[in-house]
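sorry for the late reply, my laptop died twice this morning and i had to redo everyting from scratch. anyway the thing you sent over, i finally got around to it. pasting the sequence first so we're on the same page, its 279 residues, then the predicted structure underneath. double check i copied it right bc i was rushing
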Amino acid sequence: MTDPLRESLHSMWASVAASWDEHAGHVDARSALVAQTMLDAVGLRPGERVLELACGPGGVGMAAAEVVGSAGAGVLSDVTSQMTAIAARRAKHRGLDNVTTRELDLERLECPDASFDAVLCRDGLMFVLDPATAVQEAFRVLRPAGRAVFAVWGPRDRNPWLGALFGAVTAVLGIELPPPGVPGPFSLDAPGTLDALLKQAGFADVASREVSVPMRVDSLDEWWSVIPSLAGPLAQLLASLPAETEAAIRTEGVAALTGFATQDGYDLPGVSIVGIGHR
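ok and here's the structure:
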């Protein structure tokens, strides 16, 4: 049976794939420390099989594929074909012959039990309607001694690079973001939440840590040119608004970020939570 809400969320990510393609380099550069933290946590070895979930442009999965080498394999997956096409093209451009792509739903992984040595998911779990099921699926597809690592965004007030946009939309339109019942970027930000999901799924040696992920921009015009276009449902919402309303949201968001000015631009704080578990 088709689930209208899930179908809507999936189509929403398909609709912003072009922007993720355009800004893939920005995403990789800004999240480089998170990616390295994830790879360090799983301790990949040559010859292992790795699955990246919610891969988007595929930055983490490609880095993992380079570590496991030609004797190993990297499967870059996303719920939309538009995203996997971007990842496939980027992997080909980097000459990664050990990479394949698949369309997979985090809550229903169409993979056999014990298929992979490691599962990686950066900035995807918090958008899942049932994150507990998604983590259980990651556990299921891991081989004995396999490892899974998830990165999610920390609290909204410590991520003003995005929180300011949410606040601006609420201030101008008077609506709650995300809407009730819809998971958003800060849905797993509470202390201990990610650890609890991993332990509930059966993972052992669970541990998590915070990683600083600041956004440095030359101007707030640059911030506006990148973040709204990547922000999933917000991108669709902003595109549907009259120009004067969008301008009011932009003005509100920029005003909230002016206090982060430096001598050569703006340093917008950000923090991720990276959690690791062993099968």
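The beta strands are 49-53, 73-78, 99-103, 116-122, 142-153, 204-212, 215-217, 261-262, 265-268, 271-278.
thats about all i looked at so far, will dig more tmrw
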